[in-house]
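Shipment paperwork, digital attachment
Item: protein structure file
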Amino acid sequence: MNDGVLTRAVQWYGISESRLKPLPGGHYTHVYGFARDGEEYVLRVSPSGEINLDSMRAILVWMNFLAERGASVSRPVVSRRGNLVECVEQGQDRYTIVAFEKARGVLAEDLPADQWSDRLYHNLGRAVGRMHALAKEYVPADESLRRPEWDRAGNCFNPSERLDASQAVAAEKKEEVWRYVHTLPKDRDSYGLVHTDLHGGNFFVDAGSGIITVFDFDDCAYGWYVMDIAMNLFDAVVLYAGFDEAKFATRFLKSYLRGYLAENRLSAFWVNQLPYFLKLLEIGVYTQVYEYYNPNDPDPWVGKFMPGRRRRIENDVPYVSVDFEDVLNGE
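Attachment content:
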């Protein structure tokens, strides 16, 4: 990235370049922390090939809508020029620049298992329920601010990668689930703007206060609200379940759904659809990682997820064995 890009960025957000601190971000996005007026912020500089200006503006307007109405999301910061998104062009290159209030706590995936509690599961469910309740009220001001449907964009439920000929059985299983979920109703109470990528790398947890803060809405799309619930459970099972996945998943969902239902309606019908969305996720994530998976040098998350995964998919083994209807009954 050309140094001139950062020079412009810091001018627009009223800081000096020397105060930027590089943070973990992504393979292409440059992420920095900075302080201003006693508050902590995050600055993101992304090549336009990753996400274009109109898409970023749509995402930021949605996040701002949520933040202004009390949702537990990282609030976007307006530049000194009054914009939620800035853009810099350097020759043939183009970058989008955005800033957010820094979330409290640590990445959820970095919080040790023994620090999770029923209170935190409850608060996570409540945070997601609040977002979904607000999604029912959200109407984009114009078509340029409308996000795509989930099956018209790349995400874990609908990966851009495709299974090759050696994975024919898994591909067939995916098509079976795909056909089923497309028969499900799409009404105001079940379908709207969702995060779609709500794993433990995309929200912060402050274990002391119990505050959950969601960020990285780059994949947000119109889909069923239950998708975000499925992603939370899907990821938690890999990260924290240990040897008794069913017991853990039941405990997680009971606390999570109590929190969710405090903010948003969710019928037993939709809870009972979770196995289908979990299976769609399972096959989608498998599709994304199977080609580069190396059992001798695995990514920590992938190393937990992949062993035996092809067999489970091909033999219709449930992602996790839970009485999904029973979890609505609480203790």
